[in-house]
Amino acid sequence: MQTPPSELAARLIRANAAPVTVASAYAMQTVELRLSDDPLLATRVIRLLPAALARDVTDDVLAHRELARLTPPRPLSAFRPGPAAAAAKLRAWYAEGQRRSGVSWQVLAAVNFVESDFGRLRETSVAGAQGPMQFMPSTWASYGRGDVHDPHAAILGAARFLRAAGARADERAALYRYNPSSAYVDAVERYAGRIRRSARAFAQFYARPPVVRTPTGYQRLR
Question: In whole angstroms, what separates CA 212 from the centre of its chain?
């Protein structure tokens, strides 16, 4: 039996109101993944939410739906999970990137989230991109310093690239140069917007366990 929209809305409200933990973040994440795959259900659930939460859930659902168009399901064996750097360290490195480049820390955080779930997904992309900010080797040679797999170095490399791409004047155009896909740009901007509206959003995204899309459905990585 399908869960009623009212119950899914209640789960989102409870999870969002709870302290940010892996459990509360995962509870919100699982509902949003269902809504991402079912636009009609998403519409019915989101209209039952308070306005601020409805905006946040809409951004999350649409961002995931846009990214799903770019990344077909892969077998579980294709993923190489690992731990993320501590949230406080990441936040400091994003701030350093912002100071050095003028690129907002929220954008750097959103790119890190989209590209590798803050470094938790460690496989090389099918195109050959590597590291927590998913650099192609040729691009890293121009903008990177040190090891592409080092999160500090990768975040600063992304900040250099986005600054050179004109992010301070046109953020969307710079992100398109980072990954030439309108769906990718829209997703990053939605997540960055969420973090700009509330620093709690970064904590929620960071707390979410890695969940990947496989041919048999979504699976949580251990």
Answer: 12
Give the tokens for residue 92. 């400091």
**Position 190: which residue type?**
R
For the segment 73-127, what is each residue's pLDDT rounded down to a tens digit? 999 999 999 999 999 999 999 999 999 999 999 999 999 999 999 999 999 988 8
- Dump pLDDT digits (tens) for 155-194: 999 999 999 999 999 999 999 999 999 999 999 999 999 9
Instruction: For residue range 59-70, list pLDDT tens digits in order.
Output: 999 999 999 999
Please tell me the pTM assigned to this model: 0.96
Q: What average pLDDT score do residues 43-67 get?
A: 98
Cα three-residue angle 83-85-90, rounded to 5 degrees? 145
Domain layout of the chain by residue ranges: 5-70, 80-197
SS (H, E, C) the chain: CCCCHHHHHHHHHHHHHCCCCHHHHHHHHHHHHHHHHCHHHHHHHHCCCCHHHHHHHHHHHHHHHHHHHHCCCCCHHHCCECCCCCHHHHHHHHHHHHHHHCCCHHHHHHHHHHHHCCCCECCCCCCCCECCCCECHHHHHHHCCCCCCCHHHHHHHHHHHHHHCCCCCCHHHHHHHHCCCHHHHHHHHHHHHHHHHCHHHHHHHHHCCCEEEECCEEEECC
Residues in the chain: 222
Look up tokens 């306005």; give the residue.
51
